[in-house]
Each structure stands twice: as C-alpha cells, then as structure tokens.
C-alpha cells in the first residue's frame, strides 16, 4: 500500500470498523467511534511504517480492488499472523479476491515462520464467516451478549 492509498484507506477502515461495532456488536455510536479512533491510533502508531504491521492493496486487472492489513501478534498462546482487515470493494466482490487475500495471508504466515493465522469477525458478518469456514478456519472463542 502506498502512502496515498493509506491516507484514503485509514479513515475509511476506521469508519468501517466503527460501523461494524454499531451494526453487529451492539455498541453505541459514540463509543464505537471513540474505540475505533483509539484502536487505530494505538495499533498503527507510525502509520504505514508501523513495525510488525503490513498493509496491502488488493489489485485486480491493475486497479485497486480492496485492502489487507496483517500484523504479527504475540500473546499467552504464542505468536500468530493476525488479519486486522480484509476488505474488497463492493463492486469487486464475488470474484474470489477475498479468498485470494486470505490465501496470501496464510502464505505470509508460513513465510514468516508463524504457526497460524488468526482474526476476529463480528457474528452478524455471515459472508465473511462463510469465507473463513470454507478456508478451514474454526471458531476458537465466541463472545455473546444480551441487552437487558
């Protein structure tokens, strides 16, 4: 991803993350936007050059078709390549680009010597969940909530 692409993608991805929290996570609008802003500022503290994070533009026929954000994450259960965002533009969906981006992520994990690829997906995002399942991803935790 170029600096110019990053300048467009960053605000759009942040807004999309907030929108997902609102639509699929039941988060209040003000809280979702504040969390998205904080998360992006923390995770991509040095923008496109943040160490351990890799931002890609998905290209189809020479034209930008989406974006992929990967990062190496460590934790109590070991290291993994984490998919923070995979986005295919609406007019480009249904052509296998999301699948190709995820296969690329798996290849990157192997290349970097990481044992797995991990991600979070909102429960209401059935299209993405179906894609991940079709690629062999399994649910390792499910967070549930009920408004009272």
Fold and architecture overview:
It is a single chain. This protein is 42% helix and 21% strand. The chain is an alpha+beta fold and 148 residues long. The protein has a single domain, classed as Gcn5-related N-acetyltransferase (GNAT) (Aminopeptidase, 3-Layer(aba) Sandwich). The protein has a 4-stranded mixed sheet, with helices on both faces. A hairpin with a 6-residue loop joins strand 2 and strand 3. Helix 1 (3-25) runs antiparallel to helix 2. The longest helix is centred in the N-terminal third of the chain and has 23 residues, at 3-25. The radius of gyration is 15 Å and the shape is globular.
Uncertain regions spanning at least 5 consecutive residues: none
Give the biggest sheet: 4 strands, mixed
Secondary-structure element pattern, one letter each: HHEEEHEH
Shape: globular
Over all CA atoms, what is the radius of gyration?
15 Å
Number of helices: 4
Strand order of the largest sheet: 1-2-3-4
Oligomer type: single chain
The CATH class, by name, is: Alpha Beta
- Mind telling me which CATH architecture this is? 3-Layer(aba) Sandwich
Q: Helical proportion? A: 40-55%
Residue-averaged pLDDT, rounded? Answer: 94
Q: What is the CATH fold-level name?
A: Aminopeptidase
**Count of strand segments:** 4
Kindly report the name of the CATH homologous superfamily: Gcn5-related N-acetyltransferase (GNAT)
**Number of structural domains:** 1
Structural class by sheet pairing and helices: alpha+beta
As a percent range, the share of strand residues is 15-25%
- The end-to-end distance, rounded to whole angstroms, is 43 Å
